[in-house]
Design goal:
The complex is a heterotrimer of chains A (148), B (120) and C (511).
Chain A: H1 7-29, H2 38-64, H3 67-86, H4 97-100, H5 118-147
Helix pairs in contact in A: 1-2, 2-5, 3-5
Chain B: H1 4-22, H2 26-47, H3 76-107
Helix pairs in contact in B: 1-2, 2-3
Chain C: H1 6-21, H2 26-54, E1 58-61, E2 79-82, H3 84-107, H4 114-133, H5 137-155, H6 162-193, H7 198-207, H8 211-228, H9 235-243, H10 246-273, H11 279-302, H12 307-331, H13 336-370, H14 381-384, H15 386-400, H16 406-421, H17 423-448, H18 463-481, H19 483-499, H20 501-509
Helix pairs in contact in C: 1-2, 1-4, 2-3, 2-4, 3-4, 3-10, 3-13, 3-18, 4-5, 4-10, 5-6, 5-10, 6-8, 6-9, 7-10, 7-20, 8-10, 9-10, 9-12, 10-12, 10-13, 11-12, 11-17, 12-13, 12-16, 12-17, 13-15, 13-16, 13-18, 13-19, 15-17, 15-18, 16-17, 16-18
Classes of the chains: A mainly alpha (148), B mainly alpha (120), C mainly alpha (511).
């Protein structure tokens, strides 16, 4: 069944999907410096995935989507977040030990490598949100197919 | 001064509640829930903007804070709250959509009055 | 080191690792879910024992050693604050969740997508545990939503049947509206006082109880009454609880309406508002809803023909008793009567969690073996499923309040305090119990009646379903043998701790 778009849309999408992905990655990695963060960036990257789904059709998207891989990555993102929160457990849950004790990510405030566990958490949340939203979208898109 | 942001927020909340009570289409009900949430978010976010000495506060962006030294900043807590609440809203929205699709499959209709098979 | 954060870490770890564990094998996944919930029970028991032993409120700050900000005298961080009530409910939650998970090993065996089922059930447990340990009102909202979303999804888990979907949709719309009300109330409180820590908020409200704080209380209380299934808004409960898989029904009826409803009401009323309001009026408002709930819930249970629906309506009725205890505790604040009523309410919360979990597990066993839950088709089950019927007998006797079982003590406390406070309330409570007895006697006659065609091939279910029931029966009997000891050593101190809101405030702010 034909469910993809025409040539112009496809060409434009080929050009924009990587850019959307890069912008999302930027929002995730600068989450501790600028507005935005893991959730917003992850949602942006998932937007690229949804654009792919809309433009190239479900069949093409299904080929590139592995359910087990995505749910495993989602779990991994959650575990990474939990691990980052547990780093300072000797003092308190969510204690920012990387920043306070200058272990890692302890540069000048305002630079990329600063703020302790925040960049790690942003990456973890970004991964989780991206995989989760893409999985949800794929589940909803696939649902229509079963009915026919 | 009339606090227009609060008026708008409560207007949105009441519009949402009206739609929730009087609309029968499942999709419209989901939209109504989202409108209520939007109203509450607007209320919360506008709580962060309090005039200090007649000066409107600026957004708390960390880079370039030297140039803004001395000017009041927006309360960061309401923004964190709204962000959390938006994330929760997205979860509810996704779940509601999935359930609505399932309901359409079982009942062939989006009318909430048709969802009346559970009795007793 | 403090064991408290592990109450959240362990179920969260279990839930997040479930998609990875599933890749190994299905057997490992099932065992993993049981291990995680058992460890959670251990942690909860440890926390409860610590607080009970020292009789001190545990305050745990996220991200630092002290909740107070640097150089300022007020809390700026998220705090977790656990008193005896929170710890007691946490133990109950962990206990019933463990049994529900063991039960679903067999009960859910024929379903697909079970890794998601176990993830959701662990997240449901996590949300409830978070509600009972938190001391920050927005954190409370977040955990409430975690719990609610997991329970919406679990009610609609069997999405190939129309019952689950319809009940899930109704539950979700009503629950989301209630959550929005609660969020609105919290937003109003934050706008008025500029803080989210419950203890600090309590101090502010005592200092200047404004009109806005009362409006906020109305919104929050309305939302929480929705969530606990009090009578004008109980219809979602009667739909959602029967339609869910039985192990989930046990958790919903036994735990969710307690943690997300009654416990939260008690916490908000006693710890945050307490003395700053006209507590007599407020108490009578709660008592009014309680009497309505008590009569309507139990009376509706009598006319049901669906077994699980009957149990769900009975849950509504029992929530009425708990609310009655809280209402009297509030109206007679500071007196002995109030304390007894409050102790009775807390006792009944724990008892009802155990009894109703047992009853829903019985209903699940019947549904699993016979394939119907219509009472007209189930007569004569006792001969074919003796153990299940015995479990039902114990559960029903306990919920009616027969003397040697645990329901007797808690109901007696409630009757006693309501009779001392206002005899009319005691009369209402006894009428409710009469309806309740009628409903359960009816099911009992069905079970022990003449054998019908449908039940000829039925037999007792397998080990994984029987063991949780036996554990619950033992819990009911043991708690029934020592009613006054439990009351003296656990329930009265819990009620005392809940009433002393000053200590709750001081624990965070120091001094």
């Amino acid at each position: 069944m034909e469910n993809d778009m025409g040539l112009i849309v496809k060409t434009m999408a080929r050009a924009t999907i990587p850019l959307i992905g890069i912008f999302g990655a930027y929002v995730i990695s600068h989450g501790h410096l600028t507005p935005g963060g893991g959730f917003q960036g992850g949602a942006t990257v998932a937007g690229a995935g949804i654009l792919f789904l809309v433009v190239f059709g479900l069949n093409e998207a299904k080929k590139r989507y592995d359910k087990n891989l995505y749910s495993a990555l989602e779990g991994l993102g959650g575990l990474a977040f939990l691990g980052a929160a547990m780093l300072g457990l000797s003092i308190a849950f969510f204690y920012n030990i990387l920043w306070r004790d200058k272990i890692a990510f302890a540069g000048q405030p305002g630079t990329l490598l600063s703020a302790g566990y925040l960049p790690i958490m942003n990456l973890a949340v970004g991964l989780k949100v991206f995989t989760g939203l893409v999985s949800a979208m794929m589940a909803i898109a696939l649902f229509r197919r079963w009915k026919k | 001064m009339i606090p227009f942001q609060f008026v708008t927020a409560f207007l949105l909340i009441f519009m949402g509640i009206y739609a929730f009570l009087y609309k029968r289409n499942l999709i419209k009900l989901i939209l109504a829930l989202n409108i209520i949430d939007c109203g509450i978010h607007l209320l919360l976010i506008s709580l962060g903007y309090r005039l200090e000495n007649g000066v409107l506060p600026t957004a708390p962006i960390y880079t370039g804070y030297e140039t803004l030294k001395g000017t009041p900043m927006v309360g960061p807590i309401p923004q964190a709250l709204v962000l959390t609440s938006i994330v929760i809203g997205v979860c509810v929205l996704a779940l509601a959509m999935a359930l609505t699709i399932n309901a359409y499959r079982h009942y062939g209709s989006l009318d909430i009055n048709k969802l009346r098979r559970l009795r007793g | 080191m403090n064991a408290l954060p592990f109450l959240i870490i362990v179920p969260l770890f279990g839930a997040f690792s479930m998609p990875l564990i599933k890749l190994i094998s299905e057997k490992v996944r099932d065992i993993w879910a049981v291990i995680i919930s058992a460890v959670t029970l251990g942690v909860a028991a440890d926390v409860f024992y610590t607080i009970w032993k020292t009789n001190k409120i545990i305050v745990y700050t996220l991200g630092d050693t002290t909740p107070l900000g640097k150089g300022v005298g007020f809390p700026i961080r998220i705090v977790w604050e656990v008193d005896l009530l929170g710890a007691l409910i946490a133990v109950t939650i962990a206990f019933v969740s463990l049994l529900a998970i063991i039960y679903s090993l067999e009960y859910m065996r024929h379903d697909t997508g079970l890794d998601k089922y176990y993830t959701l059930i662990l997240i449901l447990e996590l949300g409830m545990l978070g509600i009972v340990i938190t001391g920050d009102i927005f954190n409370f909202y977040v955990f409430l939503e975690i719990m609610s979303i997991a329970s919406y999804a679990l009610v609609a888990f069997r999405n190939d049947t129309w019952e689950g979907i319809e009940a899930g949709i109704k539950y979700m719309f009503v629950g989301s509206l209630a959550s929005s009300f609660i969020l609105l109330g919290i937003a109003l409180l934050y706008g008025q006082y500029g803080t989210l820590t419950m203890a600090y908020l309590s101090q502010y409200i005592t200092r200047e109880p404004t009109f806005v704080s009362k409006v906020a209380l109305a919104f929050i209380l309305g939302g929480l009454l929705f969530k606990s299934g009090a009578v004008p808004v109980h219809m979602w409960l009667a739909d959602a609880h029967p339609a869910a898989p039985s192990s989930i029904s046990a958790m919903l009826s036994g735990l969710v309406i307690k943690a997300g409803g009654v416990y939260a009401i008690a916490r908000i009323l006693f710890s945050i508002y307490s003395i700053s309001l006209n507590i007599r009026t407020l108490g009578w408002i709660i008592i009014f809803f309680a009497c309505l709930t008590l009569i309507v819930g139990n009376a509706m249970a009598v006319i049901q023909t669906d077994m699980k629906r009957l149990f769900a309506f009975s849950s509504v009725g029992q929530i009425g008793y708990i609310l009655l205890g809280i209402g009297i505790g509030l109206a007679a604040y500071g007196t002995d009567i109030g304390q007894i009523a409050l102790a009775g309410a807390i006792y009944h919360t724990v008892n009802h969690a155990i009894m109703k979990a047992l009853l829903f597990l019985v209903a699940g066993a019947v549904l699993h073996e016979v394939g119907t839950k219509n009472l007209n088709e189930l007569s004569g089950l006792a001969r074919r499923m003796p153990l299940t019927s015995f479990a039902f007998l114990v559960g029903a006797a306990a919920i009616i309040g027969m003397p040697p079982l645990n329901g007797f003590a808690s109901k007696w406390l409630l009757y006693e305090s309501s009779a001392l406070y206002n005899p009319f309330l005691a009369a209402v409570a006894v009428v409710g119990t009469a309806f309740c007895t009628a409903a359960y006697i009816r099911v009992l006659f069905t079970f022990f009646g003449k054998e019908s065609e449908k039940v000829k091939a039925a037999k007792d279910p397998g080990k994984a379903m029987i063991i949780p029931m036996i554990i619950l029966i033992l819990a009911i009997i043991i708690m029934g043998l020592l009613p006054w000891q439990i009351n003296e050593s656990i329930m009265i101190p819990t009620a005392k701790m809940l009433e002393e809101s000053g200590k709750y405030v001081l624990a965070v702010l120091g001094g």
